[in-house]
Fold:
Amino acid sequence: MRKGYQGHSANSGPFHLPITLALSPTMKPLVRYDEACRAIAAAKVVDEVKSFHDKAAAMQAYARQAKNRDLEIDAAEIRMRAERRLGELLKAAKGKGQVSRGQPSKKNCADLEQYPRVKLAKAGIDRKLSSRAQRLAALPSPKFEGLLRGWRHRVHKEGERVSA
Structure:
Protein backbone atom coordinates (compact mmCIF):
# COMPACT_ATOMS: atom_id res chain seq x y z
CA MET A 1 0.00 0.00 0.00
CA ARG A 2 1.28 3.44 -0.93
CA LYS A 3 2.28 5.74 1.93
CA GLY A 4 1.06 9.32 2.12
CA TYR A 5 1.97 12.28 4.33
CA GLN A 6 3.87 11.35 7.50
CA GLY A 7 3.34 7.60 7.25
CA HIS A 8 -0.42 7.62 6.75
CA SER A 9 -1.50 5.39 3.93
CA ALA A 10 -2.80 7.46 1.06
CA ASN A 11 -6.13 5.61 0.84
CA SER A 12 -6.96 5.18 4.52
CA GLY A 13 -8.84 7.30 6.98
CA PRO A 14 -11.86 9.53 6.57
CA PHE A 15 -9.82 12.34 5.03
CA HIS A 16 -8.50 10.85 1.84
CA LEU A 17 -11.73 9.48 0.34
CA PRO A 18 -13.77 12.69 0.64
CA ILE A 19 -10.98 14.76 -0.94
CA THR A 20 -11.31 12.58 -4.02
CA LEU A 21 -15.08 12.92 -3.91
CA ALA A 22 -14.93 16.67 -3.32
CA LEU A 23 -12.90 17.15 -6.48
CA SER A 24 -14.87 14.73 -8.65
CA PRO A 25 -16.47 16.67 -11.54
CA THR A 26 -19.39 14.22 -11.89
CA MET A 27 -20.82 14.87 -8.42
CA LYS A 28 -23.29 17.60 -7.58
CA PRO A 29 -21.93 20.55 -5.57
CA LEU A 30 -24.15 19.90 -2.52
CA VAL A 31 -22.93 16.31 -2.28
CA ARG A 32 -19.29 17.42 -2.50
CA TYR A 33 -19.88 20.09 0.16
CA ASP A 34 -21.55 17.60 2.51
CA GLU A 35 -18.73 15.10 2.00
CA ALA A 36 -16.16 17.77 2.82
CA CYS A 37 -18.01 18.73 6.01
CA ARG A 38 -18.27 15.08 7.10
CA ALA A 39 -14.56 14.54 6.41
CA ILE A 40 -13.61 17.53 8.55
CA ALA A 41 -15.83 16.39 11.41
CA ALA A 42 -14.38 12.87 11.26
CA ALA A 43 -10.72 13.94 11.05
CA LYS A 44 -8.64 12.78 13.99
CA VAL A 45 -5.19 14.18 13.12
CA VAL A 46 -4.08 17.81 12.96
CA ASP A 47 -2.22 17.19 9.68
CA GLU A 48 -5.44 16.07 7.98
CA VAL A 49 -7.41 19.10 9.11
CA LYS A 50 -4.56 21.48 8.24
CA SER A 51 -4.34 19.97 4.76
CA PHE A 52 -8.07 20.35 4.27
CA HIS A 53 -7.89 23.96 5.52
CA ASP A 54 -5.13 24.75 3.03
CA LYS A 55 -7.00 23.14 0.13
CA ALA A 56 -10.17 25.07 0.99
CA ALA A 57 -8.16 28.31 1.10
CA ALA A 58 -6.70 27.54 -2.34
CA MET A 59 -10.15 26.66 -3.68
CA GLN A 60 -11.46 29.96 -2.31
CA ALA A 61 -8.70 31.88 -4.09
CA TYR A 62 -9.33 30.04 -7.37
CA ALA A 63 -13.07 30.71 -7.09
CA ARG A 64 -12.38 34.41 -6.52
CA GLN A 65 -10.19 34.54 -9.64
CA ALA A 66 -12.85 32.72 -11.65
CA LYS A 67 -15.51 35.07 -10.26
CA ASN A 68 -17.55 32.09 -9.02
CA ARG A 69 -19.10 33.61 -5.90
CA ASP A 70 -21.04 30.49 -4.82
CA LEU A 71 -17.92 28.32 -4.88
CA GLU A 72 -15.97 31.02 -3.06
CA ILE A 73 -18.59 31.13 -0.29
CA ASP A 74 -18.67 27.32 0.01
CA ALA A 75 -14.87 27.13 0.15
CA ALA A 76 -14.73 29.85 2.82
CA GLU A 77 -17.30 27.99 4.92
CA ILE A 78 -15.38 24.72 4.57
CA ARG A 79 -12.26 26.60 5.63
CA MET A 80 -14.03 27.94 8.73
CA ARG A 81 -15.25 24.45 9.63
CA ALA A 82 -11.71 23.13 9.23
CA GLU A 83 -10.41 25.92 11.49
CA ARG A 84 -12.98 25.00 14.13
CA ARG A 85 -12.01 21.32 13.98
CA LEU A 86 -8.33 22.28 14.15
CA GLY A 87 -9.10 24.27 17.31
CA GLU A 88 -10.84 21.25 18.85
CA LEU A 89 -7.85 19.02 18.12
CA LEU A 90 -5.38 21.61 19.43
CA LYS A 91 -7.36 22.01 22.64
CA ALA A 92 -7.38 18.23 23.16
CA ALA A 93 -3.64 18.01 22.44
CA LYS A 94 -2.91 20.84 24.88
CA GLY A 95 -4.94 19.06 27.55
CA LYS A 96 -2.82 15.92 27.07
CA GLY A 97 0.42 17.92 27.15
CA GLN A 98 1.31 17.09 23.54
CA VAL A 99 1.80 20.67 22.34
CA SER A 100 4.75 22.85 23.29
CA ARG A 101 3.89 26.05 25.12
CA GLY A 102 6.40 28.00 23.06
CA GLN A 103 8.81 28.51 25.93
CA PRO A 104 12.37 27.20 25.72
CA SER A 105 12.98 24.07 27.80
CA LYS A 106 14.97 24.39 31.00
CA LYS A 107 18.44 22.86 30.69
CA ASN A 108 18.60 21.54 34.26
CA CYS A 109 15.14 20.02 34.32
CA ALA A 110 15.16 16.73 36.27
CA ASP A 111 12.08 15.28 34.62
CA LEU A 112 13.09 15.29 30.96
CA GLU A 113 10.29 14.21 28.70
CA GLN A 114 10.69 10.94 26.88
CA TYR A 115 8.77 12.32 23.90
CA PRO A 116 9.30 15.99 23.06
CA ARG A 117 6.24 18.14 22.62
CA VAL A 118 5.23 19.19 19.14
CA LYS A 119 5.65 22.82 18.12
CA LEU A 120 2.80 24.28 16.10
CA ALA A 121 5.22 26.00 13.72
CA LYS A 122 6.58 22.61 12.66
CA ALA A 123 3.03 21.57 11.74
CA GLY A 124 2.62 24.74 9.64
CA ILE A 125 0.27 26.42 12.12
CA ASP A 126 1.05 30.02 12.96
CA ARG A 127 -0.10 31.89 16.08
CA LYS A 128 -2.94 33.66 14.31
CA LEU A 129 -4.41 30.46 12.85
CA SER A 130 -4.07 28.71 16.22
CA SER A 131 -5.80 31.61 17.98
CA ARG A 132 -8.65 31.81 15.45
CA ALA A 133 -9.12 28.05 15.51
CA GLN A 134 -9.28 27.87 19.28
CA ARG A 135 -11.74 30.78 19.46
CA LEU A 136 -14.02 29.02 16.96
CA ALA A 137 -13.71 25.74 18.87
CA ALA A 138 -14.74 27.47 22.10
CA LEU A 139 -18.13 28.38 20.62
CA PRO A 140 -20.99 25.97 21.31
CA SER A 141 -22.00 24.08 18.17
CA PRO A 142 -25.47 25.71 17.79
CA LYS A 143 -23.96 29.18 18.12
CA PHE A 144 -21.24 28.37 15.57
CA GLU A 145 -23.83 27.04 13.09
CA GLY A 146 -25.97 30.16 13.63
CA LEU A 147 -23.00 32.43 13.01
CA LEU A 148 -22.18 30.54 9.81
CA ARG A 149 -25.78 30.82 8.58
CA GLY A 150 -25.81 34.56 9.33
CA TRP A 151 -22.45 35.07 7.65
CA ARG A 152 -23.54 33.09 4.57
CA HIS A 153 -26.75 35.14 4.32
CA ARG A 154 -24.89 38.46 4.60
CA VAL A 155 -22.29 37.46 2.03
CA HIS A 156 -24.74 35.92 -0.42
CA LYS A 157 -27.67 38.34 -0.22
CA GLU A 158 -26.11 41.62 0.81
CA GLY A 159 -22.96 41.37 -1.28
CA GLU A 160 -20.56 41.47 1.67
CA ARG A 161 -16.97 40.57 0.81
CA VAL A 162 -15.98 36.93 1.30
CA SER A 163 -13.01 37.27 3.63
CA ALA A 164 -13.21 34.25 5.90
About this structure: Residues 1-27 have pLDDT under 50 and may be disordered. DSSP finds six helices and no strands in the chain. The radius of gyration is 18 Å. Residues 22 and 33 are 7 Å apart (CA to CA).
